[in-house]
Specification:
Residues 18-92 form the Replication initiator A N-terminal domain. InterPro entries: RepA_N. Pfam families: RepA_N. By secondary structure, the chain is mainly alpha-helical. It has two domains: 17-122, Arc Repressor Mutant, subunit A; 141-178, no CATH class. 46% of the residues lie in helices and 7% in strands. The chain has helices at residues 24-28, 37-55, 71-78, 82-94, 126-139, 149-158, 165-178; strands spanning 98-101, 105-106, 111-112, 116-119. It has a two-stranded antiparallel ribbon. 9% of the residues are buried.
Length: 182
C-alpha cells in the first residue's frame, strides 16, 4: 500500500476514537492464561458497559453494579454465531468473571426481561505485581549500541529521541501471547 491510499490519523481527530480498555492482568496473569482471545475481548467490552450502567444507576439491592447486554447485541457487535456467543460467555462464567441472573417474565410489561449481567473484578496478587515489575525491569535494560553513529545521525536529523524500547515490548508480548518472538 502506498502513502497516497493510506488513511493517516490527523491530529484533530486522534481523540475522537473510542477504545476498550484491556487490563494487562488478562494477558500477563497466571490465573487468566487459559482464557481465549475472544473471552479477553468480551471481558473488555463488558467492562466498558459497566460505565454506562453507573451513569444509569443500575445497581441492585446489594449495591452490585449490573448491566444488560443481550446475546443479540453481542452477536451483532462481533458477528458471532449463537454458539460462539454462548461459548465465550460460558468461558467467562467458568473463570468466575461473569455472572448472569435470569430476570424471567415481568407481568407488568408482559415480556421476558433480559438477564442481568454482573462482571467480577479481576484478581491481582502480589505475585502478579512482582512479575510485572520484573518484566518491566528486564525490558528497560540499556541497549549495547545506543551510542552508535547511525543512531546519532538519526537523532541529529529529526531532533527527536528514538523509541528503541518498543521493539523489546513487541518481542515480550509476542512471547507472552504466541510463545515466539518472530
Amino acid at each position: 500500500m502506498n502513502q497516497q491510499h493510506f488513511n493517516f490519523t490527523k491530529a484533530k481527530k486522534a481523540y475522537e476514537i473510542k477504545f476498550y480498555a484491556l487490563p494487562q492482568i488478562l494477558l500477563q496473569g497466571e490465573r487468566y492464561k487459559e482464557l481465549s482471545d475472544s473471552a479477553i475481548l468480551l471481558y473488555s467490552v463488558l467492562r466498558d458497559r459497566l460505565s454506562y450502567s453507573l451513569q444509569n444507576h443500575w445497581v441492585d439491592e446489594d449495591d452490585n453494579v449490573y448491566f444488560i447486554f443481550t446475546n443479540q447485541e453481542l452477536k451483532e457487535l462481533r458477528h458471532w454465531s449463537n454458539d460462539k456467543t454462548n461459548k465465550v460467555k460460558k468461558e467467562l462464567e467458568d473463570a468466575n468473571l461473569l455472572l448472569q441472573k435470569r430476570m424471567g417474565f415481568n407481568p407488568k410489561t408482559g415480556k421476558n426481561e433480559p438477564n442481568r449481567l454482573y462482571l467480577a473484578d479481576l484478581e491481582v496478587t502480589a505475585t502478579n505485581v512482582y512479575q510485572k515489575h520484573a518484566n518491566e525491569q528486564e525490558s528497560a535494560k540499556p541497549l549495547g549500541n545506543s551510542g552508535s553513529a547511525e543512531m546519532r545521525h538519526n537523532l541529529d536529523k529529526t531532533n527527536k529521541p528514538l523509541d528503541t524500547n518498543r521493539y523489546n515490548k513487541l518481542r515480550f508480548f509476542q512471547q507472552k501471547i504466541y510463545g515466539r518472538t518472530t
